[in-house]
Amino acid sequence: MEHLIRFLIGGVVVSVFAALGDVFRPRILAGMFGAAPTIALATLGLTIATKGAEVVSLEGRSMLIGAVALSAHSPLASYLLLKRDWSSLPAALLAWMAWFVISFSLWALLLKATS
Amino acid sequence: MKLCLKPSAMRRTRWHEYLVRFVFGGLVTMAAGLVADHCGPVMGGLFLAFPSIFPACVTLVQVHEEEDEKEDGKRSSVRKRMARQAAGATAMGTTLGGAGLFCFALVLWLSATRLSPWLLLGLAMLVWVIVNTLVLWLGQGLIARFAAHGDSCS
Q1: Average pLDDT, stretch B41-66?
Q2: Residues B104-131: pLDDT tens digits?
Q3: Does B117 touch chain A if contact means CB atoms closer than 8 Å?
Q4: Structure ipTM
């Protein structure tokens, strides 16, 4: 039940921010809304209620690494689109893979010992 | 650089495109919870910053921009170049947006045990808005370099 609630709230929050990104100009703002803390917003209340504030704090610390990976992964997509004439879907999917590599590498380097 | 709203852009998005974003966003949120349940909050927290709709965002921008340019009667090669430029600008926006996300996470890490949930959420969102505003103001030169053809509201 908790996971269904996460799915529904997450879907709504992500959709709202994505829609906001659609209407703002310049386009660069769409990307900034794409980097909005939608998943955290969708789950914050539920996590505090079920697991407590300490867990939220720990998740926030890991989220710092995820945010660094997010900033680092998107220039790859931008480069592939603008300089290599790639289409958007393959460029974005390759950048997604870069997010996983960067975030898990940083996690292993900085936080694994505390897991 | 002028910020503006173009509400008509929402009508360009088809119902199945909204559905894709809803389902992706819901699935990633659910997955973040599952990872946190099975691997702990240190691993689960990573996914709170997962770029869940990044591919959908840049793909939609490219598709809609190409449709707009087609309506303007532009050649296929020109349309595709302009559409990729718009998608590239969107991707660069995600890079800039990472600063706001980082500061949001910082507030969660440092203040979660000190503030009530609503105050925590409000403070974190306020910091997100302020940081993004600062980034937009400080990065105007960079943003102008990535200006795409469809960036006006007219």
Answers
A1: 86
A2: 999 999 999 999 988 999 999 999 999 9
A3: yes
A4: 0.91
User: Does an H or E element contain B103, and which?
Assistant: helix B76-111
Please name the member of B5, B25, B57 whose beta carbon is closest to the beta carbon of A10: B25
CA dihedral of residues B80, B2, A20, B127 (deg, nearest 10): 130
> Of B104, B145, B78, whose CA–CA distance to A63 is shortest?
B104
Q: What is the DSSP string of chain A?
A: -HHHHHHHHHHHHHHHHHHHHHHEESTHHHHHHHTS-HHHHHHHHHHHHHH-HHHHHHHHHHHHHHHHHHHHHHHHHHHHHHTS---HHHHHHHHHHHHHHHHHHHIIIIIGGG-
Rounded CA-CA distance B143/B116 in Å is 37
Residue B72 has which token pair?
């303007």
Q: Binning pLDDT at 50, 70 and 90, where does residue B3 land?
A: confident
Q: Shortest CB distance from B108 goes to which of A9, A27, A56?
A: A56
Answer yes or no: are the C-beta atoms of A9 and A43 closer than 8 Å: yes
Q: What is the largest CA-CA distance in chain A?
A: 47
Q: Is the pLDDT of residue A55 over 70?
A: yes
